[in-house]
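ok, trying the design again with the full structure, not the truncated one.
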């Protein structure tokens, strides 16, 4: 689980700093990987979008990942509530805009976020420094044309 502290200006002009929580389960990672198309994985889709430099599509996927990962922890820590009401409330908060813009405009920030929301089982596949591995894979893609989120 990733706890992200975000400072933003609310709709009354007041500066606020709050903690927001993001997490993807293994099930959600699998769903994200294969929901993009009938036979196209998220990794393959991202590779194509990067190759064609389709920035609009890439940032839409970033938005989908943020919203899939966002939730609210229950007081007792037994549940991590993720539903449409929770997502809607978050997108209506200026903190969402701050986070979205930081991820859409900064590849390192996006890689850090992705490695932070993935389950431990997935990040273990990325080695000792998952963020650097994701950055390296983005760089490798630019050289080889092959991009993989995980091995």
């Amino acid at each position: 689980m990733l706890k992200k502290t975000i400072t933003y200006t609310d709709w009354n002009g007041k500066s606020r700093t709050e903690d927001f929580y993001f997490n993807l389960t293994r099930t959600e990672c699998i769903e994200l990987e294969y929901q993009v198309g009938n036979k196209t994985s998220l990794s393959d889709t991202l590779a194509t979008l990067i190759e064609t430099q389709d920035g609009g599509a890439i940032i839409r996927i970033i938005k989908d990942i943020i919203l899939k990962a966002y939730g609210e922890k229950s007081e007792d820590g037994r549940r991590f509530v993720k539903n449409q009401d929770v997502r809607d409330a978050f997108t209506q908060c200026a903190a969402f805009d701050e986070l979205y813009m930081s991820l859409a405009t900064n590849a390192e920030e996006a890689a850090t976020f992705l490695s932070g929301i993935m389950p431990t089982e997935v990040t273990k596949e990325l080695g000792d420094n998952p963020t650097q591995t994701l950055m390296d894979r983005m760089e490798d893609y630019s050289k080889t044309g092959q991009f993989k989120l995980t091995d």
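Keeping the full-length input from now on. The beta strands are 2-9, 15-22, 70-73, 80-81.
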